[in-house]
Amino acid sequence: MSEEGSTESQSKTWNLAPNTEYRFELDPGTSLAIKLASGTAEVFGSELAEGKIYTFASECKAAIFTWNGCTIEVIGSPSTEYVSDETPMFAFANLALIFEQMRIQAWLEQQDPKPDLPPSGIENLPPGPPRVLVLGPENYGKTTACKILTNYAVRTEAGWNPMLVNLDTSEGGWTVPGTISACPVDTPIPTYSPANPLGSSATSAPTALSSSALLPLVYWYGHPDPRKKVVLMERLIRNLGESIDQRFESDPKCRASGLFIDTSSGFSLSSAGEKHRLVKACIDAFHVNVIVVIGHEKLNMEMQKLPAVEQSNILVLKIPKSGGVVEIDQAYRDRIIDYQLRFYFYGSNLVLPPTVSASSLGGEALVDLSLAPHSLVISFDDITIYRIGEETMAPSSALPIGSQRTITETQPTLIDPGQPGSGLLNAVLALLAFPAEGAEHYDEEVLDRDVSGFIVITELDIPNRKLTILAPSPGTLTARTALVGSFEWRE
Ligand SMILES: Nc1ncnc2c1ncn2[C@@H]1O[C@H](COP(=O)(O)OP(=O)(O)OP(=O)(O)O)[C@@H](O)[C@H]1O
């Protein structure tokens, strides 16, 4: 059980004028409670209910925005707090309007017989539902933009359920870091902790599902930087795109709702000879028809001129960067990875201020989602572990003269846990979802399988050929196949 800090109980009231936001940042080990006393307010597009209390923890940095003015009561002591009247929320509202038009048109187009279509009212919109790729440098608010736009879509009366795609492998989205994932969203995504930036998923808590727990489709990449293994990343993006297409075939409402793709800054950086290769992969796999560039003129121009963008008539829109987006450093990023891994296995137990009772809480704050992971001892022979690519291999200079390395970036290499330096101790492993567990499969197939869960190797007993595993549930791991990357469990 992990504790998410203590909250001091002093309370402060803030009166927010229309179109302003209260921004706050929390220190490690502290938490904050905010009550909407009157008026209307939202956190990154997710509305707050009047009179309810919302909690924030794990060094959360966020803002309470109001369109019409409100009064909030803040219980606790954030390390930074201020009100700003300079926000990009009008730009987001305009984007939301454009995307709503595209959804309505796409939905009507899908009907049989097709009704007479009313004019969209907005000129030169690309055809089809909004399939939006969000790009920008590091710490520009890409994840926040995706959240706001998704939340504005699900809040309309039409009942849209857009697909949210997380390609930021430096953070886990709904699961652990190192993954890419997608999930249809039909209720607003709350913000309360960077341990689960896109809301809680069902994958970590099969016995404690909240009504809005999401079931994302997940593929394992294994590293924070998408440029580390570009060919592998392209292949996973293609796989995810195909899975989403299949989902859209069986769910026309989801198809018309469109999708939002969150990326890491690695997608926006052009490296020599491979200019915007991952952007092109996204355009192809997700049939992107809108690119939203956050606050970066040069990237905006590069996108307008990208042949793949010109050929497909993709609409490129630039929106300003919010002054509220926090510059986060590597140490904080490392702590977020730890929070996300810990949340996957242990859940969280938030300490409430003395004056706050659990019954007064609103939204989806996980006050007491304590999970009990299991420690299992298994034999080396029970599990097959692969690493993708060549990182544990001898350097090319150590190969015999004249011989060439034949292993490619996407070649699965079988790992022997008995080999010293296997890199398995404390490694995070993704368990693959093979339809028939234990059935024979080709090595290559491990590249294209989605993930059913995660485990950590906590002890390696080479003499007795045993592994001690931390697993979210007690089930057997016999004949399972797993992938290892570069993420480690830190106590
Ligand atoms: N208006 C705001 N007020 C306060 N905090 C904010 C605001 N907008 C974003 N943040 C916070 O700033 C941090 C960075 O934002 P975000 O994760 O959206 O950026 P990003 O561009 O996706 O980052 P990355 O480079 O890691 O992909 C997050 O903790 C987010 O909650």
From TrEMBL:
ATP binds at residues 21, 61, 139-144. Residues 16-106 form the Clp1 N-terminal domain. Keywords: ATP-binding, mRNA processing, Nucleotide-binding, Nucleus. Residues 136-347 form the Clp1 P-loop domain. Its main location: nucleus. One of its GO terms (biological process) is mRNA 3'-end processing. This is Polynucleotide 5'-hydroxyl-kinase GRC3. The lineage of its organism: Eukaryota, Fungi, Dikarya, Basidiomycota, Agaricomycotina.
